[in-house]
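Hi,

I'm pasting everything inline rather than attaching a file, because the server keeps stripping attachments. The sequence lines come first, and each chain or strand is labelled.
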Amino acid sequence: MSTGRLESFSDGVIAVAATLLVLNITPPLLKGHESLLHALLQQWPKYAAYAISFVTIGIIWINHHAMISRLRVADHPILILNLLLLLWIAVLPFATSLLAAYLKEGHGQNLAAGVYAGSFLAMSIAFASLNRHILLRKSHLLEVELPPELRRRILLRTITGLAPYTVATALAVVSPYVTLAICAAVAVFYALPIASGV
Amino acid sequence: MSTGRLESFSDGVIAVAATLLVLNITPPLLKGHESLLHALLQQWPKYAAYAISFVTIGIIWINHHAMISRLRVADHPILILNLLLLLWIAVLPFATSLLAAYLKEGHGQNLAAGVYAGSFLAMSIAFASLNRHILLRKSHLLEVELPPELRRRILLRTITGLAPYTVATALAVVSPYVTLAICAAVAVFYALPIASGV
Amino acid sequence: MSTGRLESFSDGVIAVAATLLVLNITPPLLKGHESLLHALLQQWPKYAAYAISFVTIGIIWINHHAMISRLRVADHPILILNLLLLLWIAVLPFATSLLAAYLKEGHGQNLAAGVYAGSFLAMSIAFASLNRHILLRKSHLLEVELPPELRRRILLRTITGLAPYTVATALAVVSPYVTLAICAAVAVFYALPIASGV
Amino acid sequence: MSTGRLESFSDGVIAVAATLLVLNITPPLLKGHESLLHALLQQWPKYAAYAISFVTIGIIWINHHAMISRLRVADHPILILNLLLLLWIAVLPFATSLLAAYLKEGHGQNLAAGVYAGSFLAMSIAFASLNRHILLRKSHLLEVELPPELRRRILLRTITGLAPYTVATALAVVSPYVTLAICAAVAVFYALPIASGV
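And the predicted assembly:
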C-alpha cells in the first residue's frame, strides 16, 4: 500500500480523537446559588486534561508523520501495527475524561491518573513498536536508505520517550497532580523548538 | 469519478466510525462504597467490544483500500454500493454499545450479541457485493486487467470471509461469549501476517 | 483556491455528518418486563431515519463531487456558498434525531417531519444556489467550457430535485409517514443506476 | 514537512469541530402541555450560536488555507503554532454550547457570552501569531517571495481582525446580545465578496 492512504486514514483518526476531547467539557449545571464563574473554575481539571491531551495527540501526529514519511510503501504488518497505535490514540478521549472526572474526587483519583498516564504509555509503546519494526525489520521499505547508526539513534530517542510516561504512571499512586504535571511537562518539552526530532 | 475522492470520503467515514467507538466508554459512576478499580473492571465488556470493533473496522479499511486500488475509475453503481457498505460500517458504534450494554445483563444478551455479529455480517455482505460487482460486472474499469481465474479466487476469499460471522450470529442464541470470541478470533486472524490477502 | 482542498474539507464535513447520525441510535433502556427485542423494534423510526439520512447525505456527496469537479479553481463566493451548503448538511443529524424522537409520539410528529423534510429542502436549495452560481456566473472558472444549453439542462435537473422535498415538507401537516416515504423514495430513486446524472 | 499533510490534518480537525457543533442541538423534551413548536422556538439561541460558529469556523478554514498555501514547507515551530490554533478551534463546540445554554438564563449569561467571544478572540490571536511567525520569521519558507511591504499589509489585516472580538468580549459585561450581534456581524462581513482577502 502506498503511504498516502495510510497517512490519510491515520490523519482522520488522530484528528477526530483530538477534536472529540472537547465533548468532555460541557456547560456546568449550577447547584443552588452557585455562580457560573465558580462552576466554570471548578471544572479546571477538564481544561487542563483537554489541553495536555490535545497537544500530546498533536505531537504524536507530528512524530507519526516523520515516521511514515520515511517509508516508500507499507506492508501488512506495518498497517496492523499502525492500527494498534491508532487504537490507543482513540482511547485518549476516554482516559482524559476519566482523569477530569476523578482528579478532585476524594477517591479514585490515583487510579484515574494512572490510567491517564498509562494510556499515554501504551500509545508510546505502540508507537515505538511500529518505529522499531520499520527501522530494524523493514529497512528495505524506506524511502531513503539510512545507515544503521542513524536508525539506532532514532529508535533510541523513541524509546527514551517512554521513560517519562513510565514514571508518570508509577507516581500516580503518590499523587495524581505529579502525574498530570509530568504529562504536561512532556507535552511542553516536545513542543519546544529544541525537541523537533523524533 | 476518480477513485481518489471515493477513497477520501470512505476514509473519512471509516475513521470517524472507528474513533466514535470510544464514546461508548465513559467514566463510571460509583455506587455506594464501590471502588473506581472495581467499577472500571466491571465494564470490561466495553473494552473488549471497543478493541474487537476497532480492529475489525481497521481491517475492513485495509481490505477496502485493496479493493478500490484495483479500480481505475468508479461509476454510479460502485458509488452506491460503496455507500451501502459505509452505512453498515457507520452502524458499528451502535452495535458495539448494544453488546457492551447487555453482555452481562440477565436478559437480552443473546439478542445483543446477535445484533453485534449480525452487523459485522451485514457489513461483510455489503463488502462482498461491492467486490463482486467490481470483479465480475465492472472488470473493464480495473486498473490492471486480471485473469478471470484470479478474479474468482479473490471473490471466493471475500465470500469465505462471511462464514465465521454467519456462525457467530447463529451461535448468539447459545452464548453471547461464543459470539464475541468468534468475532475476536476473526479480527486476530486477519491481523496476522499470514492473512494479508483480501 | 484549488478545488482540491475545497473537496477535502467538504468531504470531511459530509463524512462526519453522515457518521454522527448513528449517535442517535442508542441501546434502549428496558421498562419493567419489556424484552430487548421489543424495545429494539420499537425504535424502528431511528433506523429508518438513519438509513434515509445516510443515503441522502451520500448522494449529496456524489452530486457535490460532480459539481466541484467541473471547476478549475474556486473563488471566495463559491467558498462561502459551499460553506452554507455544508452548514445545512451538518444540521441533518439534528433533524434526523428530531424526526426519530417524535414520529410515533401523539403530538409534534407533523412538525418534526416538516423540519426533517424542510432540512433536506434547505440543503437542496443551498446546493442549487451554488450550482447556479457556478454554471451561470462563474462559467469562466470551469475546467472544460460547457455550452449554455448543457449548463441550463444541468441546472434544470438540480432545480427539479427541489420539487419532491417541497412536497414532502408541505405534506407533513397531513402525515409524517407520507413525508418519510417521499424522502425515502427520493433516496432510492437517486441511488438507482438510471439517476446517475446531477 | 510538506504542507500537504499539515493541511490534511488541519482540515480534519476544523471539519470535525464544525460538524460537532450540531450535537448541541437536541430534540427538546416537552414540559407539560408545551407544544413542540414552542419548545423548538425556545431554543433559538442554539440555532443562532450554531450558525455563527459554523460560519466563523468556515471562514477561519478559508483564511487558514490562504495562510498555509503561501508556505513551501513547514518546520517544527510552525507545526506547534498551528497545533495551538487547532486547539482553540476545537474548543468552539464547548464555547458555543455554553452560550446557548446560558443566553436566556437570568444569571451567567454575561460570562457565557464573554467566554464565547473570548474563545473567538483566543483563536484569532493564535491565528495572528502563526501568520506573524510565517510572514516575519519564516519568510524564507514561503512559496513565492513577498515584498516586506505586502507582508506587513497582510499581517496588519490579520491583526485588525482581532479588534471586533476584543470589543465583543469586553461588551459581554453590558449585554450578551450585543456580543452575539458583533460575532454575527463579523461572520457576515467576512462572508461578503468584498472581504475575500486575509
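Residues 18 and 54 of chain D are 6 Å apart (CA to CA).

If the labels don't parse on your end, tell me and I'll reformat.
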